[in-house]
Amino acid sequence: MTVHPTVWVDEARPAAAPRRGALRRMLARNAPGYLFLAPWLIGFFGLTLGPALVSLYLSFTNYDLLRAPDWVGAANYVRIATDDPKFAAAMRVTFIYVVLSVPLKLVFALAVAMAFNRGIRGLTVYRAIFYLPSLLGGSVAIAVLWRQLFASDGLVNMLLWKAFGIEGPSWVSNPDYSLYTLVVLSIWQFGSPMIIFLAGLRQIPTDMYEAAEIDGAGKARQFFKITLPLLTPVVFFNAVIQTIEAFKAFTPAFIISEGTGGPINSTLFYTLYLYQEAFGFFRMGYAAALAWILLVIIALFTAFSFLSARYWVHYDD
Amino acid sequence: MTDATVTAAPPSRGRRSRTRSLLIHGALIAASIAMLYPILWMVSGSVRPQDELFGTTSLIPSSVDFGSYLRGWMGLQVSFGQFFWNSLVISVLATIGNVLGCSLAAFAFARLRFGGRNFWFALMLGTLMLPYHVVLIPQYILFLELGWVNTPLPLIVPKYLATDAFFIFLMVQFFRGIPRELDEAAVMDGCGPFRIYFRIMLPLSLPVLATAAIFSFIWTWDDFFGPLIYLNDINTYTVQLGLRSFVDSTGTSDWSALFAMSNLSLVPVFLFFLFFQRLLIEGIATTGMKR
């Protein structure tokens, strides 16, 4: 049996190249790779890159699906920037949501992970319980539940009445509070960053703490001088992922406000506004412009995070 | 279930550490109850008399009545049985597509040699950050032109084209950890790339394939945005859309039935949680899954 020279497989050492037929060799070399990659390539061009470029084009047009797109130059962007109170409201709501929910969620996640890290009994049970809301929380069912919990006669107000004799407002239908019920919903789902923190905490060698203890460093000092600095890569990762997710939040606001983003735009998340423009009013060009602005915001945020990382994220080696 | 951290618990050091551990357990148990209370509230709310839902904070119903499940099941002009069937079909087919499409691409990136590999890999990573909304409208127009709106196809077909780059990345990481000697030996035995993929890579990658499958099932099951856009005919609704219609049609008049259907919609996810908890948690710990 002869061993065929195989050039397609990615071996550690380069395989011996056959002598004849440069074209054939090139085909033999590349064909299997591109064959395996074909579904992804079709998806990439047909469903990702192509549509992204088309939506960039559409963002410079007015388009209602019925008539051909009508080129309007930068008019959509100009209107968004200067003359769209709903856009301003959506930005405000989304930023408040991101700025409140992400740090609070991470603080909870880290605090619980720290409590677990002492190697307590029954850790797997606690961890499972704390993770469950994170797994279930994205569904419509939980959003439905939240509407009941924070209704005027819902569970939260009953508890407030029983415990403190306070008559709570109707949280979900009061524009001053409705957004914060969604922030609470987000914080409740701290399970997955908690698990990531827990994995990160286990990487920290215990002898560092032993050495610090011998040197007389207290628990707080150990936390700020050892735990937190060594954990910054995980904090960074969690912060970036959770922020991007928070920018894209949709379902809870949609269910709690019945798709309106109300009361008085107080839960008008950015993606909810985009959905209304596209599929409520069929202003596809305008919605495409909103989508590109979202892309730019996320890209800027990501770039800024990675640039800032070198000043506060601790990487050894 | 066993866990390394449990066995690694430090030996207790006298009475002080004992009160300390009692305190920690007390706090954790209280926190656990607070975390689960809303979910348990919904479970008990589905079987208790309606007026009790707004009169007591207790989890124990005064009487139990499963009638709400029947009312909910038949609450819309199409039964929830149809919605569950639709959700199941979409989730199963999308999951198969995701695992198949992403593992093919991941195999190419991790193991095959071809011109432009690094270029494509970088582009693939670039799509990780791309918000779905940027491609939403042109995709909608495309599927509208194809006559796919009001069919499950827009929610299934893209998965076979590996559009969820996150899973490709997950698998590439895992495939790279499989010893290369195995495929080299297979090549020596005359195996082609397809046989290496099917006979070596896939069988050795079952943990990552299972993790990817479970997460894609749960995410597809829970997905609300996609079905909201593509499914307008009530016969094609998924469970999530059915629930939303139920909220709109009953408003706040029949909370028990609404809770009953909400509970049922969570059952599949909960079953995955019960049986594959370890895989889920390891999946998150090693890859940084968002949920």
TrEMBL record, chain A:
It holds the Pfam family BPD_transp_1. It is a multi-pass membrane protein. Belongs to the binding-protein-dependent transport system permease family. PANTHER family: ABC TRANSPORTER PERMEASE PROTEIN (PTHR30193), ABC TRANSPORTER PERMEASE PROTEIN YESP-RELATED (PTHR30193:SF1). GO terms for biological process: transmembrane transport. It is found in: Cell membrane. This is Multiple sugar transport system permease protein. InterPro entries: ABC_transporter_permease, MetI-like, MetI-like_sf. Its main location: membrane. Keywords: Cell membrane, Membrane, Sugar transport, Transmembrane, Transmembrane helix, Transport. GO terms for cellular component: plasma membrane. Coiled coil: none annotated. Residues 91-305 form the ABC transmembrane type-1 domain. The chain crosses the membrane at residues 34-60, 95-116, 128-149, 177-201, 222-241, 287-313. It comes from the Bacteria.
Automatic annotation (TrEMBL), chain B:
InterPro entries: MetI-like (IPR000515), MetI-like_sf (IPR035906). The keyword Transmembrane applies. CDD domains: TM_PBP2. One of its GO terms (cellular component) is plasma membrane. It holds the Pfam family BPD_transp_1. One of its GO terms (biological process) is transmembrane transport. It is a multi-pass membrane protein. Keywords: Cell membrane, Membrane, Sugar transport, Transmembrane, Transmembrane helix, Transport. Residues 84-276 form the ABC transmembrane type-1 domain. The chain crosses the membrane at residues 22-43, 83-107, 119-143, 155-175, 196-221, 255-281. It is found in: Cell membrane. Belongs to the binding-protein-dependent transport system permease family. PANTHER family: ABC TRANSPORTER PERMEASE PROTEIN MG189-RELATED-RELATED (PTHR43744), ABC TRANSPORTER PERMEASE PROTEIN YESQ-RELATED (PTHR43744:SF6). This is Multiple sugar transport system permease protein. It comes from Chelatococcus caeni.
